[in-house]
């Protein structure tokens, strides 16, 4: 793509353009996100979100104001900020649940705190596995959908989905072990 680095407006929605832009900038964006968040799975998600936002707001790119690289890093900065804010909100909810559990002292508040903690552990572990395995586990285990429906939605054979669920569970166990949690 001859005009990616120039001041002309590149076609940011074409398949070839997106592939070329991804090849040029994804590794650098990943390193930036990894430095900011310290989590490789979150960094990968940041890169995915950057390219999704780039594609969605391609008309907002103004090459006369900034290069494509600068624009992508501005998007990445915003995505990282969103991720940090989401983590802070989640941590505040977790702290509030702990405080409520400690103040209540009753069995119900303890159950609430345990449930909240378990959910957070599962969320963090899910972020540490691949997107394919995560989707398979979320749809089949957490949402209780049938393998047939999920396989059709993901456009994969049922056997492939079953393999993803099996391998996803193994990856979850490993992630939880790395987190120091017994599944």
Gist of the model:
The protein has 7 helices and no strands. The chain has helices at residues 15-37, 40-56, 68-104, 107-127, 131-142, 147-154, 158-179. It comes from Lentzea miocenica.
Total separate domains? 2
Counting copies of identical and different chains, the oligomeric state is single chain
Distance between the termini: 49 Å
CATH superfamily of the largest domain: RNA polymerase sigma factor, region 2, helix turn helix motif
User: Which bin fits the share of residues in helices?
Assistant: over 70%
Protein name: Sigma-70 family RNA polymerase sigma factor
InterPro entries: RNA_pol_sigma-70-like (IPR039425), RNA_pol_sigma-70_dom (IPR014284), RNA_pol_sigma70_r2 (IPR007627), RNA_pol_sigma_r2 (IPR013325), RNA_pol_sigma_r3/r4-like (IPR013324), WH-like_DNA-bd_sf (IPR036388)
Keywords: Sigma factor, Transcription, Transcription regulation
Organism: Lentzea miocenica
Describe the structure.
It comes from Lentzea miocenica. Belongs to the sigma-70 factor family. ECF subfamily. Keywords: Sigma factor, Transcription, Transcription regulation. It contains seven helices and no strands. With 183 residues, the protein is an all-alpha fold. Helix 1 runs antiparallel to helix 2, helix 4 (107-127) crosses helix 7 (158-179) and helix 5 (131-142) crosses helix 7. It has helices spanning 15-37, 40-56, 68-104, 107-127, 131-142, 147-154, 158-179. It is globular and about 55 Å long. It folds into two domains: 1-127, Rna Polymerase Sigma Factor, Chain: A; 129-183, Arc Repressor Mutant, subunit A (Orthogonal Bundle). The model has no long low-confidence stretch (mean pLDDT 81).
């Amino acid at each position: 793509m001859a005009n990616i680095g120039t001041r002309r407006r590149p076609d940011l929605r074409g398949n070839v353009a997106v592939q070329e832009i991804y090849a040029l900038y994804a590794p650098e964006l990943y390193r930036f996100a990894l430095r900011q968040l310290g989590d490789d799975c979150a960094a990968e998600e940041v890169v995915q979100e950057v390219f999704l936002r780039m594609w969605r707001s391609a008309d907002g790119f103004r090459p006369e104001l900034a290069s494509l690289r600068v624009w992508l890093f501005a998007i990445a900065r915003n995505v990282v900020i969103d991720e940090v804010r989401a983590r802070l909100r989640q941590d505040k909810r977790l702290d509030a649940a702990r405080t409520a559990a400690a103040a209540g002292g009753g069995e119900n508040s303890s159950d609430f705190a345990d449930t909240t903690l378990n959910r957070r552990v599962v969320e963090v572990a899910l972020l540490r596995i691949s997107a394919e395995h995560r989707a398979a586990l979320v749809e089949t285990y957490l949402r209780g959908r049938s393998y047939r429906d999920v396989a059709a939605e993901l456009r994969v054979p049922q056997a492939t989905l079953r393999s993803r669920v099996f391998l996803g569970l193994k990856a979850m166990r490993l992630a939880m072990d790395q987190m120091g949690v017994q599944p």
